[in-house]
Design a protein that fits this description.
FAD/NAD-bd_sf, alpha+beta, 22 strands, FAD-dep_OxRdtase, 23% strand, binds flavin-adenine dinucleotide, oxidoreductase, EC 1.-.-.-, 407 residues, oxidoreductase activity, FAD/NAD(P)-binding domain
Length: 407
């Protein structure tokens, strides 16, 4: 099992539960990368792919580097043109229907899978049944998100649209007079995403799993076995799962599996709440792409999307711009002495993850491409993969998430 983010750790736990002997390998500490740097939302909603930015004013803002929601260089846009074309093709009515059909059963099971693994690992303390508040700065913005509510009504996902006093009741500290709100009660949030991943990892170890530091890129095929030398020992196995988050496509390319992928980085920083008020739940500004989440260490601000490769230099402007806009929503106090962290979302053009067997290599499996939803969907997709590997019926059709759709 390669990669010990939320996806790799929960895959390892599920494989152990299916009776497999599992070695989990990561170059660092479990949960230290994107799984520790997110907004902590375990959403029960989210049945539509995220729309790409549209409108001349929005694009002008992006190109002039004034946007909080998106940061992208013109040269990156040009390089990503084929991916953008494929994304737009998948954003038509047929593509959306396909996405909804696959996503609905995953979303329906996502919170229960978290609860199941949380109980197993005695990690329930990290979960709060908090709901999620989304803010729109205009009625036009609220209407642009109507499709999401349309599918929520069809699939029986509860929500409430809120104005002024109603919003004040749900989240008193938000400057409610400026916004239109949509409150999704069927969402949980995590008070410490890195702590949760670590807690699940500890359960894996206590249950007899083996964890080793090592570099997944050293994986080799020797006759019918996979072999990975690590500083402590050489690991051998018939089957290997790559759950390396944004680093998976490069690993796959070196083994003959090509995935069209775009990367959206995001930054997280913690603040004291200003003037004695606090938040009860995650609050997302849907126009400016940032989220404020109450966490163990304070209020975590997670930025919008910076389209850049995971290994590119850090861009401190992204967090700086988000911080300025966030003051419109909630009074942020001083920075807490916790260094900002960065994570990367890797996205396929149909907005669905890749969960299944390699198109080219026997015994190689993938679980990645979770975009901005991998905390929520990690456990349920990990169970899907473990079921596929064990020959059990998975939650959604294997074809829907197969790597073969890009072969
Ligand atoms: C700003 C931001 C906010 C987000 N908010 C949410 C949210 O609210 N809700 C939600 O559901 N999702 C959210 N996400 C998405 C979510 O965090 C990710 O989808 C999820 O963490 C992906 O987990 P992972 O295990 O696939 O990847 P990672 O957490 O990146 O783990 C990959 C692991 O692979 C290891 N690795 C990589 N290369 C190698 C190698 N060569 N050898 C050995 N090990 C290697 C790394 O060390 C790492 O531990 C957010 C993401 C961002 C960036």
């Amino acid at each position: 099992m390669l990669g010990a983010g939320i996806v790799g750790v929960t895959t390892a736990l599920n494989l152990r539960q299916h009776g497999a002997s599992v070695a989990l390998i990561d170059r660092g500490h479990p949960g230290d990368e994107t799984s520790g740097a997110n907004a902590g939302i375990v959403a029960g909603n989210g049945l539509c792919p995220i729309a790409l930015p549209s409108g001349a004013a929005v694009w002008l803002d992006i190109l002039l580097k004034q946007s909080t929601a998106y940061t992208v260089a013109l040269s990156t846009l040009v390089r990503l043109a084929p991916w953008i074309r494929a994304y737009l093709q998948n954003s038509g009515p047929e593509g959306i229907q396909r996405f909804v059909r696959v996503m609905a059963p995953l979303r329906a099971a996502a919170r229960a899978e978290h609860q199941r693994l949380g109980r197993l690992a005695n990690a329930q303390r990290f979960y709060r049944n908090s709901g999620w508040l989304q803010l729109h700065r205009s009625e036009a913005s609220l209407m642009r998100a109507e499709r999401e509510r349309h599918y929520a009504r069809i699939y029986g996902i509860d929500y409430q649209t809120l104005r002024g006093g109603e919003m004040h009741e749900v989240e008193p500290a938000v400057r409610s007079d400026r916004f239109f709100g949509v409150y999704w009660p069927d969402c949980d949030s995590v008070s410490n995403p890195a702590g949760l991943t670590e807690g699940l990892w500890r359960e894996f170890i206590q249950g007899g799993g083996l964890f080793l530091n090592g570099d997944a890129n050293r994986l080799e095929r020797r006759r019918s076995r996979w072999v990975l030398p690590t500083p402590r020992t050489e690991v051998r196995g018939r089957e290997v799962v790559a759950a390396l988050g944004p680093w998976t496509p490069a690993f796959a390319r070196a083994r003959g599996d090509l995935f069209p992928v775009a990367f959206g980085r995001g930054y997280a920083q913690h603040f004291r709440p200003g003037s004695g008020v606090t938040l009860k739940r995650p609050v997302t500004d849907m126009d400016h792409g940032f989220t404020l989440t109450p966490m163990e260490r304070g209020i975590r601000l997670t930025s919008g999307v910076e389209v850049a490769d995971p290994a590119d230099p850090i861009n401190s402007q992204v967090l700086h711009r988000a911080r300025k806009r966030a003051q419109d929503v909630f009074p942020l106090g001083q920075d807490l002495p916790v260094p900002p962290v960065m994570g990367t979302r890797e996205a396929l053009p149909d907005s669905l993850p890749v969960v299944g067997a390699s198109a080219t290599q026997r015994g190689l499996w993938y679980n990645f491409g979770h975009g901005g939803h991998g905390l929520a969907l990690g456990p349920v997709c990990s169970r899907q993969l473990a079921d596929l590997m064990a020959g059990n019926d998975p939650a959604v059709s294997a074809n829907a998430l197969t790597p073969l759709r890009f072969a």
